[in-house]
Write a structure and sequence with these properties.
- There is one protein chain.
- By secondary structure, the protein is an all-alpha fold.
- The protein has two domains: about 15-100, no CATH class; about 125-215, no CATH class.
- It contains nine helices and two strands, in the order H-H-H-H-E-E-H-H-H-H-H.
- It has a two-stranded antiparallel sheet.
- Strand 1 (about 85) and strand 2 form a beta hairpin.
- This is Helitron helicase-like domain-containing protein.
Amino acid sequence: MYFDKRFQVDQYFLIIAFNQEQIKSSTSGGFLIAERRSFDDITERLLSIDKTTISDLAERLSKGERVQPTNDKETSCFQLLNDLHSGSCTISDVTIYLIGSHVDGSITNKKYMRNEIWSLIAYKGAPSWFITFAPADVQHPICLYYANTKEIFKPDILPKDERAKLIANNPVAGARFVDMMVKLFIKHVLGVNSDHDGLYGNTAAYYVLKISAIE
């Protein structure tokens, strides 16, 4: 982390590593879905679905039409869509909904996070504050230290173009810096897991997005 950063600055390693992480997560999710009680029902619906009916429904939905099932075949298709998550609503492109929830960066994973946020709002009430802050990575000496290859920390004042180049060549440093700043904000400004109340009062709840970090 502090000196040998050959993988952090490699242009393709992060993409390949994240892709492998997604493959591993989808495989694990496949094992989990196979153990669920609903697996047999979903399999039976997949094998018995009318492809003509689901293609017709997909075309009508793509046009923005409000569709309600009017027969058993359409009802079965809608039940299948509840079990599965599909980008184009065709059997060939279907991705198992419950598998996608385990894959970081997937549409289904983002949908699960939105559902968690809505559940938190339903439980705790509407949030009192919406706070946006953007840590300046190209200005902060800690982030520049993360991005540099020097083991000894020296807060030297670097030219603007050199600072920008360091951050651009090492996105891991920027991610680590933002993660650190968010955790410090939650602890010291919001007062979570600390011995004092937050700047905005006693924090009843907060939500942290689960973003995959490649070490």
